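Per your request, structure below.
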């Protein structure tokens, strides 16, 4: 019985340490740091990439979104990266495009924990980075905390 209680105490202490060590949700500062790490010193400009996601989301479990480069450019798209400022893991998705890729467009669904800003970053083969963001309101959140 004593060994069982000791094990439970150890698990409670470890669980408390994990809860303190890792935030339950990303913050705008964490997302900015992730984007800065991705860009490696470059600055992403606004424009050239279009993020389409509803401003009012009824259910955060499956939020439809589209990211595209609507205008023709001489540079080739190499990747889209999607970030969500309120999710437990801020880098929601990454899509990489090869030299034979067709249209510079993706459509997918993501989970969102709460009302937040979703950011799309597009990387091009000329070294440029472009971004778009949408502030949205989630009425029924996904990935709820147990607290």
């Amino acid at each position: 019985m004593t060994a069982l209680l000791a094990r439970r105490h150890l698990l409670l202490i470890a669980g408390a340490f994990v809860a303190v060590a890792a935030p339950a949700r990303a913050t705008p500062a964490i997302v900015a740091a992730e984007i800065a790490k991705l860009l490696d010193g470059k600055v992403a400009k606004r424009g050239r990439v279009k993020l389409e996601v509803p401003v009012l989301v009824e259910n955060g479990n499956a939020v439809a979104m589209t990211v595209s480069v609507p205008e023709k450019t001489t540079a080739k798209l190499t990747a889209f990266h999607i970030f969500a400022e309120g999710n437990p893991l801020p880098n929601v998705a990454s899509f990489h495009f090869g030299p034979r890729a067709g249209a510079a467009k993706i459509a997918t669904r993501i989970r969102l924990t709460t009302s937040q800003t979703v950011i799309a970053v597009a990387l091009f083969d000329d070294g440029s980075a472009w971004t778009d963001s949408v502030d949205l309101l989630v009425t029924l959140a996904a990935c709820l905390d147990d607290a």
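The mean pLDDT is 85.

Regards,
D.
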